[in-house]
Every structure is written in C-alpha cells, then in structure tokens.
Amino acid sequence: KKKKKKYKLPSQPMFVRLSAPRLVRAMATEAAAAAPAAPAAATATPVKTKTAVPPSRTRPMLLGFLTGVAVSTSVGYVYLTDDVNDSSMQLQRNVSALRKELEQLSLRLHALDGLQTELQGVKASMALNRDLQAVTQAVTEEKAALNKALAKHKADVWVAQEEMYKAIERIEKLQGKQSH
User: Fold this and answer.
1) Which of 118, 121, 127, 148 is the S-S candidate for 131 at Cβ 3.0 to 4.6 Å?
2) Would you state the pLDDT for residue 115?
3) Cα–Cα distance for residue pair 116/61, rounded to 1 Å
4) Within 10 Å of residue 26's Cβ, how many Cβ atoms?
5) CA dihedral sign of residues 59, 60, 65, 69
6) Sign of CA dihedral 33, 37, 41, 42
7) pLDDT higher than 50, residue 96
8) What is the DSSP string of 93-128?
C-alpha cells in the first residue's frame, strides 16, 4: 500500500486567490520534483504536453476592485449613519434647549406686561404738576400762617412771663414787709 502524499499549497499571501489552473500546475510541479528519476530510455520519447495558457489577471483584479468598493461603501455607510444619528441627536438637543429658552422668554414677557399695566395704573393715580404746585402753594401759605401764630403765641407767653415775674416780686415784697 502506498501512502498518499499530502500536497502543500505554495505559500502566497492570503488575499491572492489561486485559480484552478494555477493550483493544478503547482501540484504537478511538486509531484514531478518528488518523483524518482526515470530511466534514460523513458525520457528519450518526448511527450507532448499542452502548454498552459497564462490565466487572465482581469477577473481577480475586477473581483478585488468590486470587493474593495463593497467594503468601502459599507464602511462609508456605517460612518454616514453614525454621523447622521449624531447630528440628529444634536439637533434634538438644540431644539429642546430653544424650546426651554422660548418658554422662559414667554414668562418674562408676561411679567413685563404685568409691570407695564401696573406702571400705567401708577401714572394714572399720580398727581399732575399743576396739582403739585397748588399743594406746594397751600403748604407755603399754611406755614406762613403757622409762623405768624407762633410769633403771636411767643409774644403772649413773654407778656405772661413778665406779668408773673412782676407778681412774684410784689408777693416777695409783701412777704418781706410782713415778716419785719
């Protein structure tokens, strides 16, 4: 029984794909190298072999190009969807922030409307300039009348004090005469 020889594939980069004719040629080359030398008579008759047509490089190149396009397209799609999702989330955050600011602005405007109404009420209840002038004149007249009355009162008090001092002096004189 003969042992079956295991054929090793030639070492090539992983991305290069071996076509069927290349694989057959590689295995035949290894088998010929491993076979024992044939007698000289056997080698004398030339055996016509078909010359192998070199395989076309167009198919692997086209397949590699299409694979590259598919991979780059899928990677681009993933990046694009991530970017779109990020932009969408950022836009949602901006919209919610603007909505909050709009609500705050609406509350401030409502407060300003209330203050404006209150200011109009205060203006309506305020005294006019001519009213203030009339009140100022009345106060000035009243002040002059009070000063006049105060001066008269002080004069009356002075007169009363003078009469009291005179009365006290008379009483003291009378008492001094009685005690003697």
Assistant:
1) 127
2) 93
3) 80
4) 16
5) positive
6) negative
7) yes
8) HHHHHHHHHHHHHHHHHHHHHHHHHHHHHHHHHSPP
**Stretch (H or E) spanning 150:** helix 129-179
Tell me if 52 sits within 8 A of 21, measured CB to CB.
yes
Cβ proximity of 10 and 53 under 8 Å: no
> Taking all residues of the chain, what is their mean pLDDT, rounded to a whole number?
79
Please enumerate in sequence order all residues whose Cβ is within 8 A of that of 64, keeping only pairs 6 or more positions apart, or say none. Answer: 15
| Residue pair 5/33 in contact by the 8 Å Cβ criterion | no
Q: List the one residue out of 74, 51, 55 whose CA is nearest residue 16.
A: 55
Give me the helices (H) in 3-126, please: 20-34, 40-44, 58-125
Average pLDDT over residues 136-140: 92
Question: From residue 92, how far is each of 81, 87, 96, 104, 106 by CA, in Å?
Answer: 16, 9, 6, 19, 21
Contact 50, 83 (CB under 8 A): no
Cα distance between residue 99 and residue 91, in whole Å: 12
Q: What is the pTM of this model?
A: 0.36
Whole-angstrom distance, CA of residue 172 vs CA of residue 10: 156
Rounded CA-CA distance 97/67 in Å is: 45
Q: Nearest-CA neighbor of 130 among 138, 120, 122, 118? A: 138
